[in-house]
Amino acid sequence: MTGTTLFDKIWDSHVVSSIEDGPNVLYIDRHFIHEVTSPQAFNGLKERGAKVARPDQVIATPDHNIPTIDQHLTIHDELSRHQVETLTKNCEENGITLYGLNHPYNGIVHVVGPELGITQPGMTIVCGDSHTSTHGAFGSIAFGIGTSEVEMTLTTQCIMQPKPKSMRINIEGELGKGVTSKDIILYIISKISTGGGTGYFVEFAGSAIRSLSMEARMTVCNMSIEMGARGGMIAPDEVTFDYIKGREQAPKGEQWDKAVAHWKSLCTEADAQFDKELHFDAADIEPMITYGTNPGMGAKVCGSIPTMDDIESSSQNTFRKSMDYMGFEPGDVLEGKTVDYVFVGSCTNGRIEDLRSFADAVKGKKKADHVTAWIVPGSKQVEKQAIEEGLKEALEASGFELRQPGCSACLAMNDDKIPEGKYAVSTSNRNFEGRQGPGSRTLLASPLTAAAAAITGVITDPRSIIN
């Protein structure tokens, strides 16, 4: 009999019942909701006369539609204002904790959960948002769900899910200068494609992963969905425990000791078998950037776009279409291409470490005159910490503005949109056509690479500007 994986330990302990030749009924420990995917679910409850089963296990925060300037004013956009007001009303009617706009704990849902200690190892976590996989960095099973499933979870605190296959991706070795967790995940996706993880739940492992901070681990798990995986996870360790300890909703006293004792058992056993296993060498990873219209179209910043000969014949039409949209040619060198916008933020890279990284890189330098830069904290707490640490002041000295929290330019659902035809180096997670605004051209990268572009005005290897 072989050992048990981390994924199996958590999944199997949360199965309420199994349907023969069908899905499992899975118990959910934490349910996060926001203003975009919850209104229809609450309407469904009202139509059926149903109630929220366990409101104390549901946490809400508006993030997608909120503005990132003048948050003290009424939201100007009518649809956005309606969605935020609807979330507020639904939470009041159902006794759900809401961190509303201007609340000290407001922010992007996948930033708020971890920073408050709501996200903990061994949990099952869902949200009507694909990047729920972020929470897997704590050794939890976290995945996005659709609106009908939001309704199901609200009314039963359970969800019906087929059990995914298991995959482990090992990254061994030391990361080089200027290489970040964002580069790790962009590198992996460029190697296995946006469909390489389809049908799997992925555990990230290896010495390079263990060396990462919690915030960096969240970046890796956040983008596991971009390779088609159901979610990503990392085994909890002392780094995890140190991050959680003392946070508002973390266990305290004797309960803390009991929790840590349990969390230490949440690891994949040495003889456990995965359905698929991949290995990469950290030394091969360099600063990365995308050049196309999906996250798998990535290359080294100091490299070049593939030529048509490098692309399989079945994918050449799609590749050509992507190049036409981006205004690039196959084989183009990436360094030196003009950048119009820089966006630092999102549930991928909107945490305090990301802002520190960017601020440190631009310190003593000046923003390129033609570049518009939006530096957006992932939460009110991140914003507060950035101000207290002097990051806001340092950014302003270099010509940057620290905006207010929100999803911002990650997606075109609020006022922060990239204009048509403009190039944006973005620390977010998706570069689909129109993702940041109709006709916008997105280049995904790390905060360090974003800093290099903001200073020089062109795609630049970040290793050339860091000390």
User: What is the global morphology?
Assistant: globular
Superfamily (CATH H level) name of the largest domain: Aconitase, domain 3
The DSSP helix count reads 16
CATH class of the largest domain equals Alpha Beta
Helix content: 25-40%
**How many separate structural domains?**
2
Explain what you see.
The chain has 467 residues and is α/β, with parallel strands linked by helices. The chain has two domains: 6-276, 2-Layer Sandwich (Aconitase, domain 3), CATH 3.30.499; 290-464, 2-Layer Sandwich (Aconitase, domain 3), CATH 3.30.499.10. It is built from 16 helices and 18 strands. The protein has a five-stranded parallel β-sheet with strand order 5-4-3-6-7. It is globular, with a radius of gyration of 21 Å. The relative contact order is 0.13.
Task: Offer a concise description of the structure.
The protein has 467 residues and is of the alpha/beta class. It has 16 helices and 18 strands.
Secondary structure blueprint with pairings:
Blueprint: H1 6-13, E1 15-18, E2 24-27, E3 30-33, H2 39-48, E4 58-60, H3 78-94, E5 97-98, H4 109-115, E6 124-127, E7 141-144, H5 147-156, E8 158-161, E9 165-172, H6 181-192, E10 200-205, H7 207-210, H8 214-222, E11 231-233, H9 238-244, H10 253-263, E12 276-281, E13 288-290, E14 298-300, H11 316-326, E15 341-344, H12 346-349, H13 352-362, E16 372-375, H14 380-388, H15 391-397, E17 423-426, E18 441-444, H16 447-456
Parallel strand pairs: 3-4, 3-6, 4-5, 6-7, 9-10, 9-12, 10-11, 15-16, 15-17, 17-18
Antiparallel strand pairs: 1-2, 2-8, 13-14
